[in-house]
Amino acid sequence: MKFSTGLLTVLSLTAVAFSNPVKRDVDQVKADVADISTKVVSLDNAIAAFPLTGGTLLAALGIHNSAVALNTALQSATTNVIAAGVLGEADGLEVLNTVAGFAPNIDNALVGIVEKKPAFAALPIGGLPALIHQDLNNLKASTDGYATALVDNAPDVLKDQAGDLRDAALAGFDPAIAAYAP
């Protein structure tokens, strides 16, 4: 039985490709967490800037657009964290410290969105509270997926800290979601 050189080369390259899968590296995970931080702060600022009365539809849609952008970033980052595998201790600590840095913005945004519900409901377009309810549910699911991926890929010495951050972030969603429930 003879193999041609071309077939042997293809088989060899295929074996190398499957034995060395491409992994997203820790730099991508760090870039993602920085992007998420920026988007969380942007959403928090947009909610804080929305007035208790007299807000505009354009500003409300800006909040929705910020929520959608954050949701997309969280979903992409989840894929990248999973692909990166377990982070080293120094890298894991850096990522968790970044998340801890913007965690207060998550809380502020969730409290703020509840406080501003009457202002959103008063806008002359129906369905805005339902859209916010949907955004909150989507963000909770994406936050859960991302935070769980961080916990799963945290080094053992940081798993408890990562779990605490995840649990704290998720707890804030329930009152906000309940406030906007139909």
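The record above closes out task 2.4. Task 2.5 opens with a second protein, given below.
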Amino acid sequence: MECVEGQTRHFEEFAEVLLRCHHLYHPTTDSIALLNAVKSRRQIEIFDYSRSADAFTRAFGIRNSLKCLQALLNLGTAIHTYQKVCDLGCGSGAFSLAFAYLAGNPGLELHGLDSSESQLSLGRQLMSAARLPGRFAFEQRSLPAMIGYLPDLAISSYWFCENKHVIADPELFDLMVGWELLIVDYEEIIDGIATCLPKGFHVLARHSAEVEIPAALTEFVAQEKAKVHSIHISRTMD
């Protein structure tokens, strides 16, 4: 019961953080059209973020942040121990925002990497509006690529579904993983990652859950519940 109440409290508090950013999330004609189009197709989508970054963020940003928060809650108190975190294919910062909120760590160094400058610009605005503790930097980078260091934790939401070739290539996969990697994605993508995990990595945990959208956010999300699937991976210590 205490665990459920704690999760409910986090979602309610996080809703307040998201509402600080309402100007970046409020629906527009373009975002509603994009949301309806995706719902009608019922398939994994590949987006042109250079043209639809704003509409995509308004249509899916809050929902994705709530999914990422649910996945992060599975880390328990360990979330406070990660100092250097890298958000791979960060987009407009949905995962970064959820991590920074839950970690509550002034010493956090979080770097978001993405190829779309339009998305990165939204990410910078988002983190500024959210006013969360930590240091944040958003960098344009074509992934997969060498990060240049091993972060304590790499996080990624819905990047692997658009880059499935990385899952089956051990060398490319190795480039994308810090000491640990937490992925939120479609269930079939999580299945593929678990099945094709290269030598030198192992699964720490895998979770599926249903997120109840806080009432304060239903105007932005346009649904009451959302499914989330995640996998937490670690390098195998020799």
